[in-house]
Amino acid sequence: MQYGLTKKGVRQLAYKFAKANGKKYPQSWGEEQIAGEEWMRGFLKRHSSSLSIRKPKATSLSRATSFNRYNVERFFNNVKDVHSRFGPISPEKIWNLDETGLSIVQAQSKIVAPKGMKQIGSATSGERGQLVTMIAAVNAVGNSLPPMFIFPRVHFKDRMLFSGPAGCIGAANISGWSNDGTFLKFLDHFLGSVMCSKEYRVILILDNHETHPSVQALGKASAAGVVILTFPPHTLHKLQPLDISVYAPMKTYYNQAVESWLYNNRGKTIDIYAVAEAAGIAYPKAFTPQNILSGFRKSGIYPLDTEIFTDDDFLGAYVTDRIPGSQPTENVTARPESVEENSRPHITSADLDEPTPGTSFDAGNKRSGSDTPQSKHEVANIVTPGEVQPYPKATPRKKSNRGRRVGKTMMATDTPEKLALKEQQERKKKKQKYCKEKVRHPKKVVRNLAGIAKLQPGIKKASRMDLQN
Predict the structure, then answer these.
(1) Is residue 182 within 8 Å of residue 173, measured between CB atoms?
(2) Which of 123-132, 278-287, 367-376 comes out lowest in average pLDDT?
(3) For 311, which DSSP code?
(4) Is the pLDDT at 249 greater than 90, yes or no?
(5) CB atoms within 10 A of CB 265
(6) Taking a C-beta distance cutoff of 8 angstroms, is the pair 144, 289 a contact?
(7) Whole-angstrom Cα distance, residue 170 to residue 152?
(8) Is the pLDDT of residue 359 over 50?
(9) Which of 44, 177, 354, 412 has its CA 20 to 30 A from that of 101?
(10) Nearest partner of 27 among 361, 379, 322, 399, judged by Cα
(11) Distance of alpha carbon 329 from its chain centroid, rounded?
(12) Which are the contacts of 365, defined by CB distance < 8 A and separation ≥ 6?
């Protein structure tokens, strides 16, 4: 559920559990209101086969909230809709596209060092590195296209791709990120490498980044017979094949290649002109058919498996039960039996990490006998840990007035979706134009708003006051 207990949290829960059930415990537990460290060591030792101390991976609240059964079912319904409308799509026609960032400052690998040293250093090119974006595409038979690199420069130079992956292409953007122009260039690269037409449809699955569903890109893809399908927002860590099994090893091999470059060029700093060379070493190691096929299989895209995710996978969304844009009271995630609030499972003494009936903890934290054994009824009605410390549950979400567009999974090349996206982008352009005019000619904008307010009283009043302030 993304809210795991630390060792201290487990000890606090153990104390609450013992107190709620009238168990005897050491006096020190009651004074500090927490179980002792000795108990914790014994608890982990008794459950060494099923429990361990692990460092969790940070998961944003957006991901925990958005990866729910409702969003996943909508995505798989769209996948099935594509198969039904255009006939069964063979795996070589199913493609996934995504970007990732490659920095000139690599993540540090572990090294062998003597014990007792408080700090161990490792050479890097700088404290903050420049970022080069790599766009890649893979299909469900394990093939991949030569990638595209976007360098943080105004003009692109061919020498930036020295020793890069075979067939790779490049572009430049001052920020180093992808934009509408660079995505169109990669789309041309994709269409030139993949056989597709109106009779030979191809599915291209990608995220909802604003540079992807542009009007020009959708028009070009639709004319070439490419069906663009988007993922639900904040679900890529579970649904996108590239994120699941390809980009993680790519980053590992890339960091190793950068470390080797620094080792072989001691005293020199790596720059963006060596990024393609390091990526050329890492790319064939990471983009293997086994890794690519594993990503498509684990995401359930191919072979198509709409039940690939169980209730356990949606436990993070159970905390909030939210659909983007829906009312807070709407329940979208099936509540697993393991977190039913009113459930009271039948518990026996064998299920508890406590003394068997007839024994208790004395003040010395040792078991001592008792002449009065507990009845089965008392054991069955014991207060469970879930009742002592309820499962995490978010409060109802307040209605937002920010007016932000809610992303969704969709077939972006469908006519209704294309028209809606075109209208939205036109509104965005008008807003940007208005903001520029507001900076350049504020008095002119105020006069125009004042005239509109006379024709439509009250509608533009707030905007006019904001400008005057």
Answers:
(1) yes
(2) 367-376
(3) G
(4) yes
(5) 11
(6) no
(7) 11
(8) no
(9) 412
(10) 361
(11) 25
(12) 26, 36, 38, 39
Q: For all residues of the chain together, what is the average pLDDT?
A: 82
Q: How many residues does the chain have?
A: 469
Contact 16, 388 (CB under 8 A): yes
Cα dihedral across residues 328, 330, 332, 334: positive or negative = positive
DSSP characters over 404-460: PPPP---BTTSHHHHHHHHHHHHHHHHHHHHHHHHHH-HHHHHHHHHHHHHHSTTTS
In whole angstroms, give the CA distance from residue 414 to residue 227: 8
> Are 347 and 384 in contact, with CB atoms under 8 Å apart?
yes
pLDDT higher than threshold 50 for residue 333: no
Report the C-alpha gap between 78 and 181 in whole angstroms. 28
User: Residues of 106-122 as b/e, b for ≥16 C-beta within 10 angstroms?
Assistant: beeeeeeeeeeeeeeee
In one-letter notation, the amino acid at residue 105 is: V
Q: Give the angle subtended at the CA of 358 by the CAs of 352 and 360, to the nearest 5°.
A: 70
What is residue 176's DSSP assignment?
S
Q: Give the predicted TM-score (pTM) of the model.
A: 0.77
**What's the confidence (pLDDT) of residue 373?**
47
CA dihedral (372, 374, 378, 379) in degrees, to 10, reads: 160
Amino acid at 181: G
Summarised one tens digit per residue, pLDDT across range 389-413 is: 998 888 776 665 555 566 788 888 8
The structure tokens 């329940």 sit at 331
